[in-house]
Structures are given as structure tokens and as C-alpha cells.
Amino acid sequence: MKKLISMLLAAAMVFSFAACGKTDTASGKNDSSEPSSQAQTLDVDCNVFALSGPTGVGLSPLMKKADEKTGRLNYNIGIVGSNDEIVAKLSNGEADIAAVATNLASTLYKKTNGGISVLAVNTLGVLCLVTKGEDDVTDIKSLKGKTIYSTGQGANPEYIINYILEKNGLKAGEDVKIEFVSQPTELVTAFAQNDKAIAVAPQPVATTITTKNEGAKIVLDMNDEWDKVSDTKLVMGCIVARNEYIEQNPEAVKIFLEEYKESVESVNSDIDNAAALCEEYGIVASAGIAKQAIPYCNIVFEDGAELKADLSAYLQFLYDCNPSSVGGALPDDSFYYEAE
Hints:
Blueprint: H1 2-20, E1 45-51, H2 54-57, H3 60-68, E2 74-80, H4 83-91, E3 97-101, H5 102-111, E4 116-123, E5 127-132, E6 147-150, H6 156-167, E7 177-180, H7 184-193, E8 197-202, H8 205-212, E9 217-221, H9 222-229, E10 237-242, H10 243-248, H11 250-269, H12 271-280, H13 287-297, E11 299-302, H14 304-321
Parallel strand pairs: 1-2, 1-3, 6-7, 6-8
Antiparallel strand pairs: 3-10, 4-10, 4-11, 5-8, 5-9
């Protein structure tokens, strides 16, 4: 009997130790005996492109993984300089996934007859109010009687500026004069040529202005000003994918989103490293500018219901301002990717 009891106790201990090695999904403990789903890798090509600037910042750590061949997919990630290049690459199938402006995503959905879906929101507001020699400008209301330089006439910046001014009791063209320029570099020139200047500039242009003009400073983050007067988020950048790629590689898309989320988290937790990578991959001109600009770029990761709620509300805002800014019509529900 003593021998039998000893054998049963020994067996119980074996099972107890074995149980300790199993995954505890509730507590998040690792299972050393079985690979987790997060470690899944696939021998699938994933061609990703982004515009230089804020929409590409969140990709920088993932680009490092791609270079080192440590990603869980066969990544080819590139940075381009214009919307036209992005559109062409998505249209001809060279790009499977792309980081683009949200209004461009909506326009592409219309142009491709529903051929793309938005996977995630990756950038909120990137506009800043920059001043030089205008020390009395401390908030939106103090812009009354002033002249503002800006890019983006007939696009996101104009509608955002007008809305924020209106909600602060000011009217563009009457209380505040807005002079639009065609290129962001012209904002830098305007500051260099004037002792006094005010501009609404996107990042990293806003930071470039402050580094190249003595006395120039960022006074307001327009994302914060939007939040003060709006119940919706200012959603300026997103990740899209061709539906053909999604249908053929559903698991690869899920893996990309997991790795992209990790990439965004890395950017926000280690700005120094992200800034260096932004310079290395041509996303921002220099690490110094990137380091100062990233906190104003509002790099995020939103998917699922949060993505749909925030992006649909912002596209509605743009549509109400000018239907052509989102392709003439609001996208339907199939525009918003939902993992199966």
C-alpha cells in the first residue's frame, strides 16, 4: 500500500509540473512547449509602400525588421514621395498594402470600385500653428486680424483650419486671412523672408521651420485644438490593402497588422530609435527633425470598431465640407476591414 501511494504521489507531481508548462491565456504566461499564434510566420510576400512624412513614421521599426529578415512575412517596404506613386503602385498590384491619407483612401475606394479596404488608422492630426515675431498669438481666438500661411487649399488643411476657426468664433477670409501656398517648402521661405509670420504647417515641416528660423516656435498642436471643439477624432492617415491580396492572404494580413501595431508601439516608446530609423529610410530628412516632430505626429494604431467609428465620422466631416474631397461619395461598410 505504501508503495502504491508513493507511485500515485509521484504521478501527481509529474502532471503538476506538466501543467505548469502549459499556456495560461488568461494570465498571459508563455507556453514553452507550444509555439504561440503570435509567433506564426508565413512564407508570403508582402509589398508595403508609404509616403514620406508622418504616415510612414509608424513603419520605421518594421522596415528595420524587413532589412534584417526578422519579420514574420517576406516584407518589401518602400517610401515614395507623392500620392501619384502610391496610387499607381496599388493600381498595378505592385503594392499590396500602403500608408496613405484618409481622404485619398476614400477616393481610391471609389476609383477602384471597392478594390481596397482600410486596415487601420495610423495617424491623427499632424498640423501645427507656428509663429515668428507674433508673441501675442497664444490661442485660436488671438488669431483675429492676423494672416496665416498654409498649404492644402481645397484639401484637409483648409477644412480643418476653417472648422477650428469657426468653432472659436472666427471666420476665415473675414476675421482671419489665409494665404495658401502650393508647397510646404514655401512656408519655410515665408518665415525666412518675414520678421513676423504665422503658419499652419504639417509635420515635419513645422519643426523644420523652427530649426531654420530664429525665434520661430510651435504655439499650438492643431490636433489638440480639434479635440477641444469636436466630438470626433482628427483622422489624417491610415493603412489600406488591395482586397485581392486580403482575400488570397488573410493570415498574412493578420500577421502584418500584429507586426505593424508592434512597430507603432515601438515608435511611441523609443522616439530616439524611431527618429534614427526615419532618417535611415528617408521618411524624414534628419533624425534631429524627426525626434522633435514625432510627438506632434500623433502616431496611433486603431482597427476594428474603433477604426470604423473614428474614420467614418471624419470622412463625413470632409464630405460635408466638399464631397469631391472623399471621391464624391462616402464609402460603404465594406471599406472597413474586419478580421474573420
